Amino acid sequence: MLTLDIEAVRVFVMVAELRSFTRAADALGTTQGAISVKLKRLEDRIGSRLLERTPRSVRLSAQGAAFLEGARELISAHERAVAGLNSPPRRFGLGIAAHVAGPEVPTLLGRLHAHDPHLTIEVQLDSSRRLLDLFDQGRLDAAIVQREDDRRDGEMLARERAGWFATQGFEHRQGEPLRLAALSPTCGVRDTATRLLDAAGIKWTEVFLGGGSSAVHAAVAAGVAVAPLSYRIAPAGTVDIGGRFGLPQLPSSDVVLHSSLTDQRSRAALRVLAAAFREHREPTAAG
User: Fold this and answer.
1) CA 41, CA 49: separation in Å to the nearest integer?
2) I need a labelling partner for 157 at 20 to 30 A (CA). Which of 52, 96, 132, 272 fits?
3) For 268-279, what is the mean pLDDT?
């Protein structure tokens, strides 16, 4: 009967999901060389190539696509069995800034759950400033936020480009205040945007403030306001209207992961989280 090396199967699943040997190595805390060796042994054991690797991409072979779901189930069953023996349930408080949280959040949480089924993840969405305060107070285990000007700690995850987003038909009459929607009164992006408008001598008024991402996106999509947002989380069907109306260019911002956890189990979960986060912000690459 064919038996499989669980760690080799874990490597295959990680590479397949992250589409990168580099990101898989980071997530598993190992090297690309070790990843390649384990994958080669698994393919030799199965007798089929599971991944097709080119200088620009990593993709599943037909055999790999057929094997992936069963491989995920095998890893999940293994983790549940091991967790039931020697890993007591624990909670993980994770803060994600509203200007950072995008459509990949369910994927991030799914990866963490698959990695450690006995880990209960409590997610809090808020402004970067508020989440940093909670993290510093020890009320969050980790936080993914936009870097504050006066802080240089945290693990760099990505660089976000921002713009002034509204519908194609958004109307702004000369002389009237620019109608703004903002996620939070304590949002750093809001502060930067309004400061730049003031410096440029552009009048503005807030028509939506602190209603959360759903309210802001609704206001923007309805054509009643413009919002300073990351390109990645801008509502579908909206465009950057900054150039059309002569609005000041918004600076890019660094997205960083803060955590003070040092135990092996938590650090492993954070590696998976960081790798999954980067996956949605980097071009697909084989390396």
Assistant:
1) 11
2) 52
3) 80
